[in-house]
Amino acid sequence: MPNPTVLKQKQEFVAELSEKLKNSGAGVLVDYRGISVDDDTKLRRELRAGGVEYTVVKNTLLKRAFENVGFDEMCPQLKEMSALAIGGEDQIAPAKILSGYAKKANGKFKIKAGYVDGRVISAEDVTALAELPSRETLIAQMLGGLNAPISGLVNVLNGNIRGLVVALNAIAEQKA
Question: In degrees rounded to 5, what are phi and psi of residue 52?
Answer without folding.
Answer: -105, 135
